[in-house]
Fold this protein.
Amino acid sequence: MASGWRKLLEEESEHQWLALGLFLVFVVIGGFLIGGTRNLEGMVLGVDSDENFAFDDGHHIIEIAYHANSDWDGAHSAILLNSSGMKMYQQLSSADVNDIVPFDDELIRDVTFFESDEEGTVTYSAAQNTITTVVNAMPSNQILDDGTGSSFSIQGIAKDTSDLILNNRVLITSEDGGSGVRGLGMSGVTISSSPDPSVSWTDLVFLEDDTYIATGVFTYHDDNPALLGSKIVFAHITWAGGSNVPQVLISSVMGNGSEVHSLTSMKNGLAAAASNQEAYIISKDSIEIHSISATAMVYEPCEHRLWFFGEQGSKSILRMDVETGEETTKNLQYALPLQPTFVLIEGDSLYIHGYDNKGEPDRLSLDLSLEGSMSSGRGFLNFLFLFAGVLMLGTQLYTIIDRTLVQKKR
């Protein structure tokens, strides 16, 4: 092919212009083709029936977390609901399902907090002043006593990941007087920060340097005393361990929307939050607001970017590069078939749990490794475009050099 191009270009000088013209046409066509492959490929609705997921066959998921450090890609822990009731379980393989709290145990209805890490350790609270940790199917209870005899339920826990030896944690609690904040470390649990009856804290994560961020709802009376209004509220919480009460500094920045549906910690001491009207990038010193409407948000650590999903039927998603703030719209292969309730990323897989238009639960998965790879349409076109472009330019460069050498010999 290269030799054919060389002979054509050597015949007449106007053939050089012809080649350049054809190359420009190729560039334009290639650009349109590559631009037309902005679809996210690898979307799969449903799960493989051979893998026997415990949440399949119409089970409604209340909470779920996947375990990245497991031999089976689908390993997860969850709370689900079906006609038999609710249960908490862990599934580490197709045939390995362990009930942590079975269907016939009334304890499941008292669960106020649930989480599970990449290793498969499950932490939950289903009783006053109690944290239960499950490792290798073995539960252990930690009873929290602040020395004053107070009773409280646990709504959220955030761990200081910068110092695993001290294992300092900050708790969101529900107790007399409203929503409180307590520290939990080697010396036990602290007394509560003064609860503010106008604020209900819902979630929190660790940032850096003994600093946490909490989000909740601030309730206020408008001009009409009988009419209540609400705003999304944030607070920076500082606690370095010991017996001192955590310091809660409520931010003057308040958000719009019904409530924060997603809160996640990120790299470099940052966190991200999202409501149905706004997204927030949060540091130890600031809160940055973006006008992004979403029903679900998930953080992709390896690329340091956020994914925002809209309502069922959406034909695209929004991605944000956290470092640059650049927002990119990506088209979906087909309209989003589910109303998202949970969106999680584990390794190269993105999972969307939600409900279809009949109210039935299902899962949509997306293989993140396909984007830009040779197996995707965009990846193949990129390769073809570069290959053909280099071949054309190389052929012309060879002809120029060859003619220059011939002229010198003359």
The radius of gyration is 28 Å. The first helix runs from residue 2 to 11.
